[in-house]
Here is the input.
Amino acid sequence: MTTHASPQAKAWSPVRESDVGYHKVIGYMPAAHGLTLAQNDIVQMVKVPIGAIVTDVLLITGAITGCTIDVGDGDTEDLYISAVSVNTAAISAMESVGLAGVPKVYTAEDTIDVKIEGANPPDNVAFALIVGYVVGVDITP
Here is the structure.
């Protein structure tokens, strides 16, 4: 297993906790990324700041035959999307299964990651991840 980073995860600096409101970030791994990805590799796609609550996640892929993909973070690899089959081009949306009905509030900066499962993908696959999150919102009941 190797951990890679999309251009946005390396270069982009997320908003600060004091930047209250809704934010949407797109991370992408272009087809010409020059990486050879393998089964169980993780690609860090988008940074989220301290205090973030992820509200929506969209995974956009081309056909990656034989593979499934998880989307999660540094703590739980399938927190947002679990074992989605990407044999054909698709858009997959966030599930609430991993969240158990309780939104996660990030207590440290983290990345939202894509994990390749099931098989080695072909070379030069492309995918994107759109992550929406709020910062500075009190969710105490």
